[in-house]
Amino acid sequence: MVPVIGLGAGGHAKVVIEILRLIGHYKIVGLLDPKWELWDTEILGVSVLGDDYLLSKLYDQGIHHAFIGLGTVGDTKPRRQLYEKARSYGYQIAWAIHPQAVISPSIEIGHGPTIMAGAVINAAARLGDNVIVNTGAIIEHECVVGNHVHIATGARIASNVHVGEGTHIGIGASIRQCVHIGRNVIVGAGAVVVDDVPDNVVVVGVPARILRRMEE
After folding, report:
1. What are the pLDDT digits (tens) for 73-103?
2. Is 11 exposed, middle or buried (0-12, 13-18, 19+ CB in 10 A)?
3. Is residue 216's pLDDT more than 80?
4. Is residue 82 a contact partner of residue 68, using CB atoms and an 8 Å limit?
């Protein structure tokens, strides 16, 4: 059993804890969270030990794997920052792939994926680092999903779609085949994207239209 520390102690962490327990490869030794009121409590039987300042100490104690227990609701930057912090200390990011996800043997996956129950990822798709494919989401064949992307629950991405780094595809959204979605985009819940989307925008609606632009 490989010891692993979790970064984050909220709802997303609970899902990842249960995935790792199902896999059976990791022993979860604790959680870290900046909310002091969570310290010395337990999440699904796992102790919250303190905050991220313990990362160096835990690494020196022989814990060299971590999982990112922070999800994203639109803004993926906090999760990315947490991932990069863990990597800067030398941590390997645990693979949290639910046994009931359906994953083609021909896909490519980067470091530290989180793939939930019922997700389907089809042939020759490519996923970057620190990607979340949430419960029941579908990524069709030959899609390219950039680093730090979150494909939310029930989203549907048709074939040959490119999703840029740091983008959040909202719950139940649908993306037409061959569409290119830029970096740091938020696709709203239930949106239907039929045309290319530039970087740093929020798109909503059916069909999806730009609601506003965001700063890089």
Report:
1. 878 999 999 999 999 999 999 999 999 999 9
2. exposed
3. no
4. yes
Q: Which of 161, 173, 152, 178 is nearest to 126 (CA)?
A: 161
23 Cβ contact list (under 8 Å, min separation 6): 96, 97, 99
Token look-up 């069909």 returns: 207
Q: Which of 73, 109, 68, 72 is nearest to 86 (CA)?
A: 68
Residues 6+ apart with CB under 8 A from 53: none
Task: Give the position of tokens 């896999």.
Answer: 23
| 3-class state of residue 54 by DSSP | helix
CB 141 within 8 A of CB 125: yes
Contact, 142 vs 124, CB < 8 A? yes
Question: For residues 145 and 101, what is the distance between their CA atoms, to the nearest angstrom?
Answer: 17
Mean pLDDT (whole number) for 21-36: 96
Judged by DSSP in three states, 41 sits in coil
Statement: the pTM of the whole predicted model exceeds 0.85: yes
Answer for the pair 199, 209: CB distance below 8 angstroms, yes or no: no
Concatenated DSSP letters for 67-104?
EE----SS--HHHHHHHHHHHHTTPEEPPEE-TT-EE-
Burial of 43 (C-beta count, 10 Å sphere; 0-12/13-18/19+) = buried
